[in-house]
Design a protein that fits this description.
Length: 602
């Protein structure tokens, strides 16, 4: 079934947290409407919903207000709305949209509204708790965004494209909402993944985060549903200050992700500009001198609210319980969103993250007989010249056009780059219990990087056939990634030609010097493109059959090379090339609603 995160216990890594929030808004007296929360909807929002079909107007209202609107599809079919414009509260705007339609509304939750016919409040379809019991329900607005909801769970996830709710996905999905990330102080992707059910979080031999699910490495990573080069050798630890939620889909997901392991897919959803002006500053201080600052500014940039923007910045400087080790990080994010027309919205933005510090990734060796060294927990077999520097940036654009209340066309593109450099002392060999000499010590550095481009175009919507409503999503995508990974070999000058475990801590070891010899991959890359489709057919009131497929091509290439101290090539292999064309990946799933809240799937 579905997994939520009710645990609101704060992570102990940050001992003290101070939050300052400044919200700018205008309060207006609300119009009519039935039993709504007294203050939850008093803030005004700029609306520009044109006159037209009522269902489409409700969809626009839901997107602007952030409310989830529930109504039977037949209730609004054929009806028109006069539209609404100006700075209004949600109740006042909705009342104007419904004017002359013979309909009214009722708040059934703080962020949920049910639309009904006038006089339906006392009808026999009212539940014992006062809620309205309706048959076929359409859901508008709200979307998958979780910021400001105050909820540990959400009913939707953008990683499951073509599905309005998690119940419609025949796979195991976890969404870590903005509230979960805030309450548990999960500021890094590795921290969030360590909390995700069914996921094992670890680090590889270079200290990069690595995640496993169902016995396989997770290699499919997305940002706003666009594939990234994160599965390459270099994997940064994304800062979560700029993301609304972390979505984890467990199991094979070849329909939209194409090539990859069947462990699962991770999607990071960026925060978007808000309709109301808001700003916040967050300060945190914790154990081992862990200091963090976040700032967030968002809201409309024009009087009519058609242009909106958001900027987020974060800075963190921390040490660790072992020494020597530290890290400093800077994060910057900016996005602009513009309504070209009431039916077309475009956006563009960029992200930057830089981390630099003394890192220790190799862990502790053992004695030659396999017993533990018994060192103090604060001792790291490290030097102050063992540094690691990573830089990540991306630029992205997107557009969305709504043909009607049922059909939407989406386009998105992203260019992303990772750069990675580190130098470290390697003392992973066994230790002689008699002398304390560490076996096979050494030093090396690595210069690596990867850049990728991704494009996706899709159309999604719903249609009626055989007396029931069905859903379809279809599209095409293209992605390319190129990178390198070069390891530089070093000479070290250990005291008396050896290094013992007793030299730590406080080891004053001269920096290692380059020999000039290198080994690695000066070039590697992959390219894939394909078309996909997913059809959700309602075969009964409770049963759905989901079928789909992907048809695509995939190519991969690598060049391996070694060079000696003088830069001469001693080994080169460029023969590794893999090409697959005309690959068809089928997709079949079934869901059955046991109750309104529980679904079984296969």
């Amino acid at each position: 079934m579905r997994q939520s995160f009710p645990d609101s216990r704060a992570k102990t890594g940050l001992g003290m947290r101070i939050s300052l929030a400044l919200l700018a808004s205008t309060a207006l007296v609300s119009g009519n409407g039935l039993s709504r929360p007294a203050a939850a909807q008093e803030a005004s929002t700029l609306y520009a919903v044109p006159a037209g079909p009522l269902g489409l107007a409700i969809t626009r209202f839901g997107e602007r207000s952030g409310l989830q609107i529930l109504y039977p599809a037949d209730l609004v079919r054929g009806k028109q709305s006069p539209g609404v414009s100006g700075a209004l509260t949600a109740p006042e705007a909705l009342s104007r949209l419904l004017a002359g339609s013979g309909l009214t509304y009722r708040y059934t939750a703080t962020d949920t509204v049910t639309i009904m016919a006038l006089g339906a409040t006392g009808a026999s379809n009212t539940g014992p708790d006062g809620s309205i019991l309706l048959d076929t329900i359409s859901v508008s607005g709200g979307g998958a965004a979780t910021e400001g909801s105050g909820s540990y769970a959400t009913g939707a996830a953008s990683v499951a494209r073509g599905a309005d709710s998690l119940k419609e996905v025949p796979q195991s999905v976890t969404v870590m909402t903005d509230k979960v990330l805030e309450d548990q102080n999960l500021t890094m992707m590795s921290e969030a993944m360590a909390k995700a059910p069914g996921v094992v979080a670890a680090t590889d031999g270079s200290g990069n985060p690595q995640f496993f699910s169902r016995g396989f490495t997770i290699t499919n990573y997305q940002v706003d549903n666009l594939g990234t080069a994160y599965e390459s050798t270099f994997r940064p630890d994304f800062d979560l200050s700029i993301y609304d939620r972390v979505e984890v889909l467990r199991g094979a997901e070849g329909l939209f992700s194409a090539a990859g392991e069947p462990g699962g897919t991770v999607n990071l959803a960026r925060k978007r500009p808000t309709d109301q002006r808001q700003s916040s500053v967050s300060l945190a201080y914790g154990s081992w001198n862990n200091r963090r600052l976040e700032a967030d500014l968002s809201g409309p940039l024009t009087e009519d609210g058609r242009l909106r923007g958001r900027m987020i910045g974060a800075w963190q400087d921390r040490e660790y319980f072992y020494s020597p080790a530290d890290e400093e990080k800077q994060v910057a994010y900016g996005i602009l969103e513009y309504d070209l027309t009431p039916d077309t919205t475009i956006h563009a933005g960029a992200t930057y993250q830089h981390q630099n510090g003394i890192r220790w990734a190799k862990g502790l060796p053992t004695y030659t007989d396999g017993t533990q060294l018994g060192l103090d927990r604060g001792i790291a077999l490290n030097t102050d010249w063992s540094t690691r520097e990573t830089t990540t940036w991306d630029m992205f654009i997107g557009a969305e056009h709504r043909f009607s209340e049922d059909w939407t066309l989406k386009f998105s593109a992203m260019r992303q780059r990772f750069d990675y450099r580190y130098t470290e002392l390697s003392v992973g060999g066994p230790v002689d219990p008699a002398t304390g000499v560490i076996g096979d010590p050494g030093a090396f550095s690595e210069d690596a990087g990867n850049h990728s481009d991704a494009v996706d175009l899709s159309i999604s919507g719903r249609f009626e056939a055989w007396g029931r409503e069905h859903k379809l999503v279809a599209g095409a995508d293209w992605r390319r990634s190129d990178g390198k990974q070069i390891r530089n070999l070093y000479e070290t000058s250990f005291p008396d030609g050896s290094l013992t475990i007793g030299d730590f801590p406080g080891l004053d070891l001269p920096p290692a010097t380059l020999t000039g010899a290198t080994t690695g991959w000066p070039a590697y890359g992959a390219k894939q493109q394909g078309v996909y489709a997913r059809l959700d057919m309602a075969v009964s009131d409770r049963a759905h059959v989901i079928v789909g497929g992907r048809y695509g091509n995939y190519t991969h290439r690598e060049i391996a090379e070694n060079r000696d101290e003088d830069g001469n090539v001693t080994y080169r292999d460029s023969s590794f090339r893999w090409r697959e064309t005309g690959i068809f990946t089928p997709y079949v799933g079934v869901t059955y609603d046991l109750t309104p809240d529980w679904t079984t799937y296969a």
